[in-house]
């Protein structure tokens, strides 16, 4: 382990011991072009044979998935917001577009009127494949491992379902599957990218909201996209998870958001718990010494 | 935003924050109360092992015998609770594939396994006279003495690593209290060990251990319950708040009874029971407070927002 292994910017594959690894791969999810079609959710389930997560009506707009879980490795969040002046729609220049959303009238029949004071936020969430992954750090069996692409994957033949990774993840991503007992999450389609294929969700995304590629290149592309959007007047556009010096050392999957992260169910400033682990062990060591000393004091002065 | 610290509840107004339909951000632990039970039995094993070693060192055969036997029983219960809480219990031995310092559970597995080895030998030595083999009858008692001291050396690690196990998570209220939690658990383990001593063989050492353990647990517990602003809140409110309040009362009463009731065997035994119950409730209270803090996005969003605001203040950059 290098000195930075628990925190700060590093190359995770090299840190994990790979010699001359391929470039780090990741996702850039640009929510400004997401249309909420959920093709990513479906493609992921189909390719990875992920079981259903129940057929529920949650009453959360069009979101009936709820969140990432053992059985949902992509999750499309839907937020309906009061919002004045949707610069994004104005920037498109063409007024309202029919996106396949259910309407109260026949498609194209509704007279195009002035836009309301309302907007949709849609965002396809996924495992962040952190540089410093809480789940991987705390896994006691070695079931979770770092791939040569810098991603984080569970080996299902090793996992014994201890559940520690579930509490280790600052994003609430990884989860134990009911009835199966093991932990499951996005593998960034390890079985596809090893063969030079695009992960199922990115492949299925019709608007390139989900972009897959070399992380360095994605970061440059994302920075340009934010600049473009700001120029077009979308002041609220911001990147999330792209910084190498954030609490998890940079996310392998990062996002362009149009509101605060917590609005989408993301933590505003996540920090991997292992950052403080050396200090925690030190405190535990002190407490252990205090405990031993108490026992000695308790028996002091007695002779056997 | 609400200011941190001070423990003044009027200074922490109803936190304003945004969320996604009020859903949790970090995932609530999948662990059940088996883990809270393990915290108690593991601590009890550690406390009893120290009691037994003290008895051994001072020639108190009753303390030694009781301490070793309870350690053995608590060790068995601990192993049971740990394995039963796995999603795949038949794969429990996969824990032994690796030794990972970044995983408190991995470290804990090795601590428990080593402790279990020596504690089992020490416990078995108490049953040596009943064994049919002459060789075992001769070899076990001295081996048990060495093992008894070995268990005492490992006991503090067994009692405190569980605090790191909880703290090294994204569970907001467990993570925040990492400086004090090991002391709370160490005190709780000492108090439970003293409780065993007060029931089986009350004497000066058990009373001192009761007072020292209870003091450590209560002092650290106070910091946990009041020293971390919003993230201390789950330790004071609702069910976990009630559990921890009961734990405090029982622990304080147990320690007081241990000293004041030293002339009465019955009061000593009752004090021992109070200490054991207090220790168990402490573990359940801490466990449940963490679960509460993970289920409500407030405890994830508000402190992180405050952290970001503080960063912006320092650097002048968002």
Write up what this structure looks like.
The complex is a heterodimer of chains A (304) and B (318). Chain A has helices at residues 12-15, 39-48, 87-92, 134-138, 164-168, 190-193, 200-204, 215-231, 277-299; strands at 25-30, 74-82, 118-126, 144-146, 152-154, 175-176, 183-184, 210-214, 238-240, 253-257. Chain A is α+β, with helices and mostly antiparallel strands. In chain A, a hairpin with a 6-residue loop joins strand 6 and strand 7. In chain B, helix 6 packs antiparallel against helix 7. Chain B has helices at 33-58, 61-84, 104-126, 134-167, 172-176, 181-200, 204-226, 238-260, 265-295, 298-315. Chains A and B meet through helix 4, helix 5, strand 6 and helix 9 of A and helix 1, helix 3, helix 4, helix 6 and helix 7 of B.
Distance from first to last alpha carbon of chain A: 48 Å
Give the count of helical stretches of chain B.
10
* Integer average pLDDT of chain B: 94
Return the domain count of chain B: 2
Mean pLDDT of chain A: 91
Order of helices and strands of chain B: HHHHHHHHHH
CATH topology of chain A: Alpha-Beta Plaits
Overall geometric form of chain A: elongated
> How many beta-strand elements of chain B?
0
In short:
Chain A contains nine helices and ten strands. Chain A is of the alpha+beta class and 304 residues long. The relative contact order of chain A is 0.20.
Entry keywords:
A: 304 residues; four-stranded mixed sheet; 10 strands; elongated; B: 318 residues; mainly alpha; 2 domains; 10 helices; 71% helix; NrfD-like (chain B); transmembrane (chain B); cell membrane (chain B)
């Amino acid at each position: 382990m290098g000195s930075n292994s628990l925190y700060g910017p590093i190359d995770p594959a090299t840190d994990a011991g790979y010699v001359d690894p391929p470039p780090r791969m990741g996702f850039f999810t640009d929510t400004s072009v997401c249309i909420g079609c959920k093709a990513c959710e479906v493609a992921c389930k189909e390719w990875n044979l992920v079981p259903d997560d129940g057929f529920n009506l949650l009453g959360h707009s069009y979101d009936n998935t709820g969140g990432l879980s053992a059985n949902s490795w992509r999750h499309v969040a839907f937020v309906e917001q009061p919002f004045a002046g949707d610069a994004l729609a104005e920037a498109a220049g063409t007024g309202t577009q029919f996106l396949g959303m259910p309407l109260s009238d026949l498609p194209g029949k509704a007279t195009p009127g002035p836009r309301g004071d309302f907007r949709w936020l849609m965002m396809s969430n996924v495992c962040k494949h952190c540089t410093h992954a809480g789940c991987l750090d705390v896994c006691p069996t070695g079931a979770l491992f770092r791939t040569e692409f810098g991603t984080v994957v569970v080996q299902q033949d090793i996992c014994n379902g201890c559940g520690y990774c579930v509490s280790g993840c600052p994003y609430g991503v990884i989860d134990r599957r009911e009835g199966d007992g093991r932990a499951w999450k996005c593998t960034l389609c390890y079985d596809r990218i090893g063969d030079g294929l695009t992960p199922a969700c990115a492949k299925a995304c019709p608007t390139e909201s989900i972009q897959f590629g070399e992380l360095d290149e994605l970061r440059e592309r994302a920075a340009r996209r934010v600049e473009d959007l700001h120029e077009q007047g979308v002041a609220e556009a911001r990147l999330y998870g792209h910084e190498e010096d954030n609490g998890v050392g940079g996310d392998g999957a990062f996002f362009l958001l149009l509101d605060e992260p917590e609005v989408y169910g993301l933590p505003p400033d996540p920090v991997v718990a292992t950052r403080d682990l050396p200090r925690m062990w030190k405190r535990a060591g002190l407490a252990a010494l205090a405990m031993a000393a108490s026992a000695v004091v308790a028996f002091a002065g007695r002779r056997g | 935003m609400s200011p941190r610290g001070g423990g003044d509840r009027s200074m922490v107004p109803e936190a304003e924050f945004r969320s996604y339909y009020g859903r949790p951000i970090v995932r609530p632990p999948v662990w059940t109360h088996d883990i809270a039970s393990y915290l108690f039995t593991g601590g009890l094993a550690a406390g009893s092992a120290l009691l037994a070693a003290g008895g051994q060192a001072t020639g108190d055969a009753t303390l030694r015998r009781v301490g070793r036997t309870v350690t053995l029983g608590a060790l068995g219960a601990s192993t049971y609770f740990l394995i039963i809480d796995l999603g795949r219990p038949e794969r429990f031995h996969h824990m032994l594939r690796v030794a990972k310092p970044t995983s408190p559970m991995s470290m804990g597995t090795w601590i428990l396994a080593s402790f279990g080895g020596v504690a089992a030998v020490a416990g078995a030595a108490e049953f040596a006279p009943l064994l049919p083999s002459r060789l075992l009858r001769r070899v076990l008692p001295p081996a048990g003495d060495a093992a008894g001291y070995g268990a005492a050396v490992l006991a503090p690690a067994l009692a405190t690593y569980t605090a790191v196990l909880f703290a090294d998570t994204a569970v907001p209220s467990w993570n925040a209290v990492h400086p004090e939690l090991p002391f709370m658990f160490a005190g709780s383990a000492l108090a439970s060990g003293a409780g065993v001593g007060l029931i089986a063989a009350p004497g000066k050492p058990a009373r001192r251990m009761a007072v020292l353990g209870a003091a450590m647990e209560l002092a650290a517990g106070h910091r946990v319950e009041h020293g971390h602003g919003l993230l201390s809140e789950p330790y004071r409110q609702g069910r976990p708040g009630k559990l921890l309040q009961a734990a405090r009362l029982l622990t304080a009463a147990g320690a007081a009874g241990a000293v004041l009731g030293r002339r009465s065997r019955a009061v000593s035994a009752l004090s021992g029971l109070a200490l054991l119950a207090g220790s168990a409730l402490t573990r359940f209270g801490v466990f449940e407070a963490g679960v509460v803090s993970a289920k409500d996005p407030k405890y994830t969003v508000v402190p992180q927002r405050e952290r970001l605001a503080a960063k912006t203040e320092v650097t002048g950059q968002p």
